[in-house]
Amino acid sequence: MRRRKRHATIIATRFYKKKSSGGVLKQNQKLVILTVLLICGLILGALTDKKAVGTSAAPLREIVENYYQVKSEQSFLQNFLSTLGTESVYMGLALIFGVCAFGEPVLWLLPLIKGLGLGLISGYLYQQHAVTGLAYFSAVILLPSVIASASELFACKESILMTRDINRILLKKQNADGLEMFKLYFMRYAVLYGTILFSAVLSAFLTFAVGSKINLFSTV
Question: How far, rounded to the nearest angstrom, does the alpha carbon of residue 198 sit from its chain's CA centroid?
Answer without folding.
Answer: 14
